[in-house]
From TrEMBL, chains A, B:
InterPro entries: CinA, CinA-like_C, CinA_C, CinA_KH, Competence-induced_CinA, MoaB/Mog-like_dom_sf, MoaB/Mog_dom. CDD domains: cinA. Residues 8-174 form the MoaB/Mog domain. It holds the Pfam family CinA_KH. Belongs to the CinA family. This is CinA-like protein. SUPFAM superfamilies: CinA-like, Molybdenum cofactor biosynthesis proteins. Gene3D superfamilies: 3.30.70.2860, CinA-like (3.90.950.20), MoaB/Mog-like domain (3.40.980.10).
């Protein structure tokens, strides 16, 4: 049998219906299933009541050949999923020794006493193929019921991801003999979807029938994902890769990474490779650029520090901005951000620095400088570059957008050697 | 008719199934519906194909008396919802003048030319009660089909929220004569759910039958929500409020705000009220505390700046930490964070400062100071207070937890006058 099964996701838990928890599992599962060429037909969130779970299972099997469930596998009385599935498949629970050992290992690692309720988690319906969970106490379960596959996983995101990656995705590919599929992701920044589409229209038009480009926009840029599906011919990966060099050339200035690499990590890798250190001088972004950069593990190798100069006094004393500049041009001006960036280099002792000043809103705007007016500057040993940006989609998005623009400004001007 | 209808949510759009967008709308709707005493029975995400939408509507009306839809109302060919609903309710589209004027006003505000496709957005099925949207181009639609209410709203979160708040929630309360319900939210920080539950067990036990307390934990604290449902007696709000003074007394040290106020905003209000200015000196948090504080509109009134001292050199030069302290005790030590906090006060010219230094991981740990070791210090004109925290749930959560702990440390020690 080789065909592409339809997939449904059922997320189980009152906390989803009450809005106490946002369901991020489904989106992650949708992405990962998409990578192996499977499509989700429906996602349903239901209460952790037996009759609701059974109804959802009955409905899903009418529409799909794969039903993936998350949630309801914890050790407490609220967690019904396993018992509901045992009854649904007419199967008794029995102890699964390898999962008991996994549970024991988890408790040993955290040096906590194991309770009887946790021991009970290793009892699974006889009808299932157990999926061992080495990062949590609830094993997964795989049921094959007349050609429809049902999989039950814990709702804790990192446990679900572990089970999906280790067991579920490979088993689905094997079971359904899912045709091969290959992807390449090119991350761009600084241009919108329609501009990029125009730039690469001719390249896109010449793609073979089994290759398709997806535009995945985010705040500040677009991820491009090229997908090659099976055409019965060999070397799918190689043929996909062969399409990339002309694409790279066309989007060169906007391309910052290949694969799932965020901008701050791509910039960090450039700094590390070139042996450069960096710092920031932030007014309107209020530390957001530093926060992004230091979110990357190992960033202390190139990120030395920041001066968040929200008040003008701090701009003068900690960054050496001239009081006359602030008086003449104001804090939100090309002159001020240039001095901020140059001051950050001197005061923090870094090779390159980026500075921001602007009006994030909702207050603080004027006729001359309305909310959404931003100045950015980049400085290294050879040059200082300033840029004005106008963007206003509310305080939070403004800060996020300018943070991304500042990281991109550094990426664009970073010298190749220190 | 006065009863509590079951609600279903249907979110429409391939981008949800492919995992390109995380569905945050449903959680928000679940929370808001909960506040007026309505419960969601199921949430379903389906493709923007006509047959999938119709199937979802047919299924939902079997289970619920209210079906809330989001998505598929944009101006492009992909956006089918309105046409599907017109056919589903056997109703033709006609121009709804007030919505046309709303659309025109939106384009006038952004100074952009209005296209024919946008004009088309003001055509609505005759069978619906239009719900005017003054913040976007897609009006909402309310259908009453034999006692089942169907509502269609745009998927853009702020447009959906606008329609829910302005039209849908009040109309549902009126239509179903939903019994009155009252809530009070008390925000606590610094103690877990089980500790709080023990502290307030006696108070909770004496609550009248129509009042219930919910524990809503988040990273670092717990939101307590007291809900009073209708018992046929008058003055429900007053009786709810009357329960609060003893609760406030029991959780006093952990209570930082009432209502939906985040910690950084609560701290900001305290600083403003007391006429105090604040700054931060951040090593392991890398600017995250400053970023949180400056996310609050108007924070420039009390937040002056930060020194993010990731490198030891920056700790010495910008904060005045003694090199001998760093040599003797290391960067992650009580001595260092005390000097960082005191240095931040001097160098930034602020009344109060908070400092952090620790090992966020995954690398950088040692036997003596493993990943998850953090030191925090608070300083004002009268005292410096240091605190050690051990917490390790991965780099991102570690940074988030320590950021919250640092804000709380300031809240706990802030002097009542400057």
């Amino acid at each position: 049998m080789s065909h592409i099964p339809a997939v449904e996701i059922i997320t189980i838990g009152d906390e989803l219906l009450y809005g106490q928890v946002i369901d991020t599992n489904s989106a992650w599962m949708g992405q990962e299933l998409g990578k192996i060429g499977l499509r989700i037909r429906q996602i349903s969130s239901v209460s952790d009541k037996a009759e609701e779970i059974v109804r959802a299972l009955d409905e899903a099997r009418q529409r799909a050949q794969v039903v993936l469930m998350t949630g309801g596998l914890g050790p407490t009385k609220d967690d019904l999923t396993k018992h509901v599935l045992a009854r649904y498949f007419g199967s008794e629970l029995e102890l699964y020794e390898p999962s008991l050992r996994d549970v024991e290992a988890i408790f040993a690692r955290f040096n906590r006493p194991m309770l009887e309720v946790n021991r009970q988690q290793a009892y699974l319906p006889k009808a299932c193929t157990p999926l061992r969970n080495t990062v949590g106490t609830a094993p997964g379960m795989w049921f094959d019921d007349g050609g429809v596959v049902f999989v039950s996983m814990p709702g804790v995101p990192f446990e679900m991801k572990h089970l999906m990656t280790t067991h579920v995705l490979p088993k689905l590919q094997e079971y359904f003999r899912v045709p091969p599929i290959e992807h390449a992701v090119l991350q761009t920044i600084g241009q919108g979807e329609s501009f990029l589409a125009e730039q690469i229209a001719d390249w896109e038009a010449q793609l073979p029938a089994n290759m398709k480009l997806a535009y995945l926009p985010y705040l500040g840029g677009v991820r491009l994902r090229l997908t090659a599906t099976d055409d019965g011919q060999p070397n799918l990966r190689e043929r996909l890769e062969a399409q990339l060099p002309p694409l790279r050339a066309l989007i060169g200035p906007y391309l910052f990474a290949e694969g799932e690499v965020p901008l701050e990590a791509a910039l960090g890798a450039m700094l590390k490779e070139r042996g450069l250190t960096m710092g920031t001088a932030e007014s309107c972004t209020g530390g957001a650029i530093a926060h992004k950069l230091t979110g990357v593990a190992g960033s202390s190798a190139y990120f030395l520090g920041s001066i968040v100069a929200y008040a003008n006094d701090v701009k003068v004393k900690q960054l050496g901005v001239q009081p006359t500049t602030l008086e003449t041009h104001g804090a939100v001006s090309e002159e001020t951000v240039r001095q901020m960036a140059e001051g950050a280099r001197r005061h923090l002792g870094v090779d390159v620095a980026v500075a921001t000043s602007g009006i994030a809103g909702p207050g603080g705007g004027s006729e001359e400088k309305p909310v959404g007016t931003f100045w950015l500057a980049y400085a290294d040993a050879h040059q200082t570059v300033a840029r004005k940006i106008t963007f206003n989609r509310g305080r939070q998005l403004n800060i996020e957008f300018i943070t991304t623009a500042a990281l991109n400004l550094v990426r664009q001007h970073l010298p190749t050697v220190s």
